[in-house]
Structures are given as C-alpha cells and as structure tokens.
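Quick review question:
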C-alpha cells in the first residue's frame, strides 16, 4: 500500500520514509542517509515502479546537471543498497534497469512473503 502524496510518510514493503523529519526506517530500524542518498531514495520512492535515469537522480540529489562519466549516482545507489538491502548484490528494492537507470520495485518484498 502506497501512502497518498498528501501524507508525509511513504511506505514500500518494509521501507518507510518520513519525509517531514527526513527519517528512513527499514523493517523498523533507523537508517542514516546522507543528503544525496536520501534525495535519490525519496525521488524513486515517490514514484514506485517508475524508472529514473542517472541524470534525473543526479539532479534530484545535487540540483545540477549530470556530468557523463561521473560515478556518483552508481556510488550512491550502491551505498543505499548496502544500507537498505538484505543482500545488496541481489536487491529487492532498488533495481537496476539496464541501459535506462534505476527504480524502486514496489513488489520488492512480495515474492518472498509467499513461502
């Protein structure tokens, strides 16, 4: 269930983002994110399932135009995965869409909870 945009809390699976306080919880545990990490996560979580290009995420995080050849988006996504995912190399939330960018998978947890 995705909270409506009017609420200041987004919930996707076990991920909760309390935007008013910039607090992120994963399975009830607080997660410390820096500005860029939080901004990218919030950008993707606001539109689950939508694919965001590196340029869009870069701009969301730093408010400036993406410079091709910089790895800051990949590095930030990797740090987010290490902080949020049970298995960062096999993420259930933050998915790579090859050749396009990244998205938050709204069904991230659902496949697991069936067994």
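Suggested answer, residue by residue:
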């Amino acid at each position: 269930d995705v909270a409506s945009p009017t609420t200041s809390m987004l919930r996707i699976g076990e991920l909760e983002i309390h935007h008013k306080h910039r607090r992120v919880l994963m399975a009830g545990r607080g997660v410390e994110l820096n500005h860029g990490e939080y901004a990218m996560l919030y950008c993707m979580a606001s539109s689950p399932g939508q694919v965001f290009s590196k340029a869009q995420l870069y701009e969301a995080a730093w408010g400036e135009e993406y410079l091709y050849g910089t790895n800051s988006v990949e590095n930030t996504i990797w740090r987010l995965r290490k902080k949020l995912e049970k298995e960062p190399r096999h993420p259930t939330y933050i998915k790579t869409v090859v050749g396009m960018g990244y998205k938050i998978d709204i069904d991230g947890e659902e496949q697991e909870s069936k067994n």
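Why it works: Residues 109-115 have pLDDT under 50 and may be disordered. Residues 92 and 111 are 9 Å apart (CA to CA).
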